[in-house]
Amino acid sequence: MSLMTALGIVTVFCIMFIGIVITVLWFVHSSSKIESQKELKKRKMDIIDSHFTEMVRIECPYCLAIYSSNTSECPTCGANAKKILFPEMHG
Ligand SMILES: [Zn+2]
Predict the structure, then answer these.
(1) Number of Cβ within a 10 Å radius of residue 67
(2) Is 77:63 a contact under the CB 8 Å cutoff?
(3) First to last CA, the chain
(4) Ligand 1 center–CA 57 separation, angstroms
(5) Are residues 46 and 66 in the same domain?
(6) What is the pLDDT of residues 17-67, one digit of tens each?
(7) What range does the domain containing 9 cover?
């Protein structure tokens, strides 16, 4: 067992340690990036969803009254059977 061998082992361990640290830092960095992208996407979806809810209209199959999807039952006859009218996305 020479000093060179011992130094070699220490060097290898140092390189391994640095490698692990870099990997962990890279992983944390990339996962936080993914997390913020997820957050952004979620926020976008929330905005789209709220707009969509406002735009969607429900047609009552009994009295044909058209009302907002925020309302759970027909304001005219009280029926809660829903027929969703999707908004026209073009134009
Ligand atoms: Zn109705």
Answers:
(1) 16
(2) yes
(3) 81
(4) 13
(5) no
(6) 999 999 999 988 888 888 888 999 999 988 888 877 777 888 888 888 888
(7) 1-55
- C-alpha 38/C-alpha 26 separation (Å) is 18
CA-CA distance, 45 to 68, in Å (whole number)?
20
Number of domains observed in the structure of the chain = 2
How remote is the CA of residue 10 from the centroid of ligand 1, in Å?
80
Quick check: 41 and 20 in contact, CB under 8 A?
no
Q: Are residues 27 and 42 in the same domain?
A: yes
Would you state the pLDDT for residue 1? 61
Please tell me whether residues 83 and 72 are part of one structural domain. Answer: yes
**Ligand 1 centroid, distance to 71 Cα (angstroms):** 12
